[in-house]
Design brief:
With about 375 residues, this protein is mainly beta. The protein has one domain: 6 Propeller (Neuraminidase), CATH 2.120.10. It is built from 4 helices and 31 strands. A hairpin with a 6-residue loop joins strand 17 and strand 18. The two termini are about 25 Å apart. Pfam families: DUF5050. It comes from Clostridium tanneri. This is DUF5050 domain-containing protein. Keywords: Signal.
Length: about 375
């Protein structure tokens, strides 16, 4: 048991680890298992009743994925993905290499020497992006760490890998030598790595971020250079062109019939809009920016009936329900991203000098150790 706990402690040295609890619950007993001058890592036996409702039905019922990761985890750089009782993750303490562990924090196992982002897990396979020497690689490996293969490589920076059914979609860059310019496009592969070509090429004078595939549609945040950042929707088979859903957006999650997003403008809010563009409505004030606002993953992740986000202005983690009620501050935290894995929120926190800072564990919505 001690070995399992130590394994979990070493893993969590790369994360901020806190659970969402009832503010009136009795404090849990905390044991310090491992620490250095840089990290103070604590582990607490969790009360599953306190955590009830955070784990998705899919995770609790051991259902094999047909979609490689959640919308929320993907826009937070896909560093964690869950299938059944296992979490697959990029280990910050070991060069961002690919690991897996039980969702209760036990049995941490290295799967590959590759660094890994935009992790997707479907059935027996893990798909992910590796960056090395100014090149991007799309790799796949079995969930036991065997049969690793490179499916695709490019000189450009590939991002936001989405595995949906039997296809792989990603956001990439290309160049038009005749026009002497770069362009962005959504591209597709089959799961064996055969190219299926471009799904959509974006117009010149635009840039893209936070691409998601949900139910046969692609969703993308597009900056049109001169217009505010816009959330667009388009069909993967090309039958429907771009539909504008919302503007002034900083980031978004697509969950069911709704898109939850943060705004980036004169007024900063958390909002939601239907996937057909109807019923756009404010939920609460807030600006879910990354550590330095620009260039970082925007910190917004929706699970069940709750929206979790970090407000950039006061550097704190909040939750609010999907109807905009019961807003609660969870912790002061300069999080760089928010991922949801099993019962927990994982939030890497960086120091003000852009290095990995100390990590913290939160219980009962309070910081208990620094």
């Amino acid at each position: 048991m001690l070995k399992k706990r130590l394994s979990f402690a070493i893993f969590t040295a790369s994360i901020i680890f806190f659970t969402v609890c009832d503010t009136h619950a009795a404090p849990l007993q905390v044991k310090r298992l491992w620490g250095t001058d840089r990290h103070q890592i604590l582990y607490t036996e969790t009360d599953k009743e306190i955590l009830k409702g955070l784990v998705s039905d899919k995770q609790s019922k051991n259902i094999v994925n047909t979609v490689g990761n959640t919308s929320g985890n993907t826009v937070n750089y896909g560093r964690y993905a869950v299938q059944e009782k296992w979490a697959y993750y990029s280990n910050f303490d070991d060069g961002n290499k690919l690991y897996k562990m039980k969702t209760d924090g036990t049995e941490s196992i290295k799967l590959s020497e590759d660094n890994a982002e935009f992790i997707n897990v479907v059935g027996d396979w893990i798909y992910y992006v590796t960056y090395q020497k100014n090149k991007s690689y799309i790799n796949k490996i079995k969930i036991d760490g065997s049969s690793r293969v490179t499916l695709f490589s490019a000189q450009s920076y590939l991002r936001f890998l989405n595995v949906y059914k039997d296809k792989i979609y990603y956001l990439g860059q290309g160049s038009n030598s005749e026009a002497n310019n770069w362009y962005y496009s959504v591209n597709a592969l089959n799961i064996n790595g055969d190219s299926l070509g471009e799904v959509y090429r974006f117009p010149r004078n635009s840039s893209q971020a936070y691409f998601n595939v949900v139910a046969n549609y692609g969703y993308c945040l597009v900056n049109e250079y001169g217009n505010k950042d816009i959330i667009y929707k388009f069909s993967l088979d090309g039958s429907e062109q771009f539909t504008r859903l919302a503007q002034n957006a900083l980031t978004f999650n697509v969950v069911g019939d709704w898109i939850y997003y943060g705004t980036n403008g004169r007024i900063n809010e958390i909002r939601k809009v239907k996937i057909d563009g109807a019923e756009d409505q404010k939920l609460t004030d807030g600006f879910p920016g990354g550590l330095h606002q620009w260039g970082d993953a925007s910190c917004l992740n929706v699970e069940g009936n709750w929206i979790y986000y970090k407000d950039w202005y006061d550097q704190a983690i909040y939750k609010v329900d999907v109807n905009g009620n019961n807003k609660t501050k969870l912790a002061d935290c300069a999080a760089e991203s928010i991922s949801i894995v099993g019962d927990y929120l994982y939030c890497p926190e960086y120091g003000i000098d852009n290095t990995h800072g100390e990590f913290y564990e939160y219980k009962n919505m309070k910081k208990i150790k620094k």
